[in-house]
Amino acid sequence: MITIHDKTFSPFISRDDIENRIAELAAQINSDYEGRSPLFIVVLNGAFLFASELVKNIPLSCEITFVRLSSYTATESTGKVRQIIGLEEKLTNRDVIIIEDIVDTGLTMHQLLLQIHALKPLSVEIATLLHKPEAIKKPVDLRYVGFEIPNRFVVGYGLDYDGVGRNLNALYVLPE
Ligand code: XMP
Ligand code: MG
Asked: Can you give the residue ranges of the Phosphoribosyltransferase domain (predicted)?
């Protein structure tokens, strides 16, 4: 058990299970992108640990860049999505792989995809550590998914509860 602010979370997915699964995703990406040079777009803040573990297992020639956007307040999705901040790379003729921590309602990813497609990349795929299929409101095509999880709030491994918990090396879940 771990307490953050006013809430107590239970252990959910261990560091070993997360890192083994990320190695599997990396192997898939290595084989899918053999001979190509993808551009990874990491969605900050939540995806920073997932991204670093993923790309360490990807020996392809690639580029990694970072964007910020946020749609979340505390434990509920607001549905309000801000513009991409910080993308300076040209995406024309690039194979883009978006790296995200979690796809919950899908609203954030849907908005981000619209903005990225407008920049005319050659291809766009999504790698997300977590996906909550029961929460989805805007279905998006997720090529690489670490874990499908129930519709419960999780923290750790990059994900926060009101700013705290991102540094936890495993995932924790809020009991129902
Ligand atoms: P949507 O609903 O737009 O949400 O798919 C995506 C963003 O919301 C955050 N999010 C969470 N953050 N624990 C968190 O710490 C959760 O269980 C959770 N669910 C969604 C996350 O930032 C994601 O990018
Ligand atoms: Mg968050």
From this structure: 16-161
CA angle 144, 97, 113 (to 5 degrees): 95
Ligand 1 contact via 42 beta carbon (within 6 Å)? no
Which domains are delineated in the chain?
17-71+81-152 (3.40.50.2020)
Q: How many CA atoms lie within 13 A of 133 on its CB side?
A: 7
Question: Residue ranges of the alpha helices (H) in the chain?
Answer: 15-32, 48-56, 107-117
pLDDT score at 59: 98
* CB proximity list for 8: less than 8 A, separation 6 or greater: 1, 2, 175
> Does 32 participate in catalysis according to the annotation?
no
Q: Quick check: helix, strand or coil at residue 87?
A: coil
Selected catalytic residue, list 104, 141, 160, 162: 104
Task: Tell me the C-alpha to C-alpha distance, in Å, between residue 133 and each of 122, 142, 155.
Answer: 28, 11, 17
| Dihedral (CA of 134, 14, 12, 158) sign | negative
The reported pTM is: 0.94
- Give pLDDT tens digits for 136-168: 999 999 999 999 999 999 999 999 999 999 999
Query: What is this model's ipTM?
Result: 0.94
- Check pocket membership of 108 for ligand 1, CB cut-off 6 A: yes
Which two tokens mark 153? 């709030």
